[in-house]
Write a structure and sequence with these properties.
two-stranded antiparallel ribbon; 68% helix; globular; mainly alpha; binds Phenylacetyl coenzyme A; 316 residues
């Protein structure tokens, strides 16, 4: 089959909403885009364990600690599925981690903000996982098979995460005035960064056009951001939280909440490495990776011994 025929077949597959699978032919740029997006997504899940990990030893009850531990463990698991999905495209996990450490691969801007109080753990679950779900439900229909199937499982877990976060916010909003203040303070600090998670506005998004053509992305950054806003503003008001946006208004004609302007300068500062915690997050990841080298070496040595034992069994 000529390259032209292969491209034709690939395009028909995309048009007919069939999944592209690891051994299928794909344009080199499609492969690169998938590796970029899936590996950045994987890095986000793993780096995202850090702000919450900071609160495991300070959770207010044993129940809260168990839930938080389970959630953080889930995020690590999501990272592992995603690294595996990316590996089906011909890149090795070690290489992806090297790209992260060298600043060649990004991770979500949101994880460069600190978790200062217990209410932040509620806000992260409710707002950060809430935003992640809106994006990931859409990605369940992405054109690359292993990524789409990974998203189905991840979304089920994220839905639990979002609810546990909202439960914390509900509890605090039903508490004493100090707790209500803490919840509002967390809302004030996490609201705008959560809106930035969806990426730059459509007009400035460099990858959206091609990614939508290839059905890697099924909806644009602004469409997903608006869906999150509409869902979340009502949830905030329901428990008595104010949205920290003086320009927020409901447009009766469109049926959507309209927000003030997002501070895109802050977004670019954060994704370029100058957010409040970028340095700390990366330093911690590099240290954990280096400290774990002996475990990886031991696992490889054990696998090698097992392989040799098998060989000997066969030759005997
Ligand atoms: N942060 O042209 P676009 C989670 C970059 S999972 C950092 O619009 P694209 C679970 C973008 O990479 C959260 N960088 O890009 C959890 C590109 O730079 P590049 C992660 C961002 O790819 C919860 C440039 O800007 N979810 O939270 C961000 O078409 C709690 C131009 O942007 C995913 O990764 C950002 N927010 O659309 C875990 C979902 N936004 O690569 C623990 C999958 C944009 O050219 C605790 N990813 N950039 O150097 C996606 O859906 C897309 O990649 C977007 C960006 C929508 C994020």
């Amino acid at each position: 089959m000529t390259e032209e025929d292969k491209l034709k077949r690939f395009n028909i597959c995309i048009e007919q909403d069939e999944k592209i699978e690891p051994k299928d032919w794909m344009p080199e740029q499609y492969r690169k885009t998938m590796i970029r997006q899936i590996s950045q997504h994987a890095h986000s899940e793993v780096i995202g364990m850090q702000p919450e990990g900071n609160w495991v030893l300070r959770a207010p009850t044993l129940r809260a600690k168990k839930i938080l531990l389970a959630k953080i463990q889930d995020e690590g698991g999501h990272g592992l599925y995603l690294y595996s999905a990316a590996e089906t495209l011909g890149i090795d996990r070690g290489e992806m981690i090297k790209q992260l450490h060298e600043g060649k691969a990004k991770y979500s801007s949101i994880f460069n903000y600190p978790a200062l109080t217990w209410a932040d753990i509620g806000a992260i679950g409710w707002l950060v996982d809430g935003a992640a779900i809106v994006n990931q439900v859409s990605l369940q229909r992405t054109s690359y098979g292993p990524y789409a199937r990974g998203m189905v499982r991840i979304c089920k877990e994220e839905s639990f995460h979002q609810r546990q976060g909202y439960e914390i916010m509900v509890t605090m909003m039903n508490g004493i005035s100090e707790q209500k203040k803490m919840a509002q303070d967390a809302m004030d600090r996490w609201w705008w960064p959560a809106l930035m998670m969806f990426g730059p506005p459509d007009g400035e998004s460099v990858h959206t056009k091609q990614s939508m053509q290839w059905k890697i992305k099924r909806e644009s950054n602004d469409v997903l951001r608006q869906r999150f806003i509409d869902k979340t503003v009502d949830q905030a008001h329901f428990i008595g939280l104010e949205v920290p946006d003086k320009d927020l208004k409901f447009n009766e004609a469109t049926g959507h909440w309209e927000t003030g302007t997002i501070n895109w300068k802050e977004f670019h500062e954060v994704i370029n490495g100058n957010g409040p915690c970028n340095h700390q997050r990366m330093k911690h990841h590099i240290k954990a990776h280096n400290d774990g080298k002996w475990v990886r070496d031991a696992a490889l040595a054990f696998a090698e011994t097992e392989k040799n034992d098998q060989k000997q069994l066969i030759t005997n």
